Amino acid sequence: MADIEITRTETDTKGRYAARLAGIAGEGELTLSKVSDSLVIVDHTAVPDTMRGAGVAAALAVRAIADARAAGQRIVPLCPFLRAYAQRHREETADVIQW
Fold first, then answer.
1. CA 81 → CA 11, 12, 23, 37, 69, distances in Å?
2. pTM surpassing 0.85?
3. pLDDT truncated to tens, each residue of the chain (99 aa)?
């Protein structure tokens, strides 16, 4: 499997992670809204059919969780994918996910 390249862009109130695979059309994304300096809401994760099964959505989730942890933030997982990911990895994400 090719390396997944993830970039992050943000404004004062929103954030977006974009994932690309070399030689594969399309772009996966994870979006969030900033509630405060210490709380964000992940509201959307999507991966195009061209990337399905490559671990792109999980890589986006891992990156968003790692960045929140590094920033001392908590995540409210409104996005169904991130919510399911966090439930499957409850112990590893307990310090970041706010249920």
1. 23, 24, 25, 23, 19
2. yes
3. 469 999 999 999 999 999 999 999 999 999 999 999 999 999 999 999 999 999 999 999 999 999 999 999 999 999 999 999 999 999 999 999 999
